[in-house]
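Why do we care about 3D structure at all? Because function follows from shape, and shape follows, mostly, from sequence. That is the central idea of this module. The next example makes it concrete: a single protein chain, its amino acid sequence, and then its structure expressed as tokens.
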Amino acid sequence: MDMKKSLWLKLRQKIKRNRINPLVIFTCLFSLLCIFRLEINPLASGIDPSWIYAINFATLHKLEWGSSFIFTYGPFGYLLRTVDIGNHVGERIIFELILSLGTALITIVYVRSISAIRGIAQFIFCAVLLYVIALQFQEWRLFAPFVLLLLVSQKKQKVLLTLLLGVLTGFYFLTKFSLGLTALVVFSMGTVGLLKSKECVLRFFLFSISLLAALVIFWLMAGGTIHSLFAYGFSQIELALGYSQAMSYYLASWKKEVLVFILFFITCILWIIRLGKKLSLATSAVILASLFMAWKAAIVRQDGHIIILSFFGIFIVVLLLVSSWEKEKGRSLLFAFASIILLLTASYFNPLAKNMVTSALVRPFLWMKGEDLVKVISPSGIARYKIEIANQSIEATQKLALPVGIRNIIGADTIDIYPWDLSYVFANGLNWTNRPVIQAYTSYTPYLDGLNAKFFSSPARPEYLLWHHDMYLGNGLGSIDGRDVLFEEPATILAIFNHYDLTFYQDNLTLLKSRQTNRFSQVSIVKTEKVPWNTWVDVPQNETGIETLSASHPVSPLLTLLRLFFRQAAISISVRFPTGEEVTYRLVPDTMQDGLIVSPFISSVDDLRMFLKMGKGRNSQSIRFNGDFVSKLTGELTLTWKNSSFLEDKLSQNIK
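And the structure:
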């Protein structure tokens, strides 16, 4: 007991002498409790669970990111979306500890850099900042400390902190490319805002050197090569450039949400103007650039993603409140209150985000229920958690078990899964040979579509392709956002049809086997014509093969600006049959040029199987491209009709 009292007295004496700062202790503990997250994802069926498992699998087995494995996350993405394979859980814990303590220290340095905040106010603002950082959606929890560090670097320790910002950005690029791009844009805007040419040049130089060094070092640590790093960068740029036109989505409440967000932006701008010289131009540039990147992340897919802007906006509100604390307390509190009300109102209008907001607001306090850090420090907490996740995975595996007939056919041969539920691979221990872009809905540019088409046309393609049919549109060929899976990556679909036979089918599964010869002859152009939008066009009839259609339109500067600052409006295709029946599907604008199969038209699983067995299907009579808003920003459509005739062995010979 005497020894314990002696240690306690020594600790108190050190605290009094400021050898151990109470603010540091408080902030680090608070950060460990609020920021630290231990979330392990179980194996499960579906789009998101399957890609989460896939990126963990790719990192563990050191697949070649950027060429043989392409997704929006990078080789360190598993630290955000973790599966219990290899030592990923242990690495996630280490990462979360570094993130929590690093965020705490950055927060302390930032708060102390504001001269007006002293004493108990430092504790309060550190706690508030950490809480709003803990609210952030996924990777934005990593970006918020970057913003704090960038703001501090404009005042002191400029060289050291600029180098550190470059290292963080390099890591972000390899975690999720869009996160690295966001950091790069915000740093650039904040540096230009300094309006000091020599300092700007120096900062850009130091940032670039550390960014490139971090990219190379982290990439080599992940098992990559310098050559594959270039491939990764190019493929990620393709994904980034095509995202706005392909993945745009919104609910019926979108106009109300956009209006409220615009009011929030106006409020922030008025607040910044009110602060005047109290807020430097560089700080204003960082704040506005950060908000714009959050706007883009939230507004392209305007579903539950709007909480990105709602919560990051709250973080920015706190920054403005801290910056104006010296002389503008009263008015700033009013601005802050109005801004937060607007942000939460936008989420309230969105039925998907509404429920997410409630759970997110209490998420930083789950440690009180024994979650997160408490699991790590409790004697058997992690072990119990792993068992719980393993049981969920076992239950999912049983549901994903393949029929005996399919397992017997596949054996140990190579296989890929189409269009996206890769969980079949991991649940059944299949010999996976994956195409470059691992899920169909992400091949939304001609380059990405071409990579998959080239893969399925090459000798490296897998022996089997398992096609699962999800009932998104009610016909088993539906995709996300009202799209048809056959129109997601048209060149890839043509390559699959050309090089695979139907060999077995059961329930919602269709098994294809690689052909020795092509199914189709060389493509021949039938005609090219220009047609207006929203106009029915007759389909050339072809009884000896398939009719494909490549469609393109001029991309006007206005459309480019719309993609950059907002999102592209939806484009769809309507198909009319001789019976008068019509069907309509949304299209991916950039891949319309890759060759849509319009006749025979495959609109159901039975149609697909009949086409692969007999080379037959329903002929379409006419088609129409619908683009009410887009048509006003572009000229006429250019349609190129192409024909591919069947060769003699068009039929599937080995149907089980």
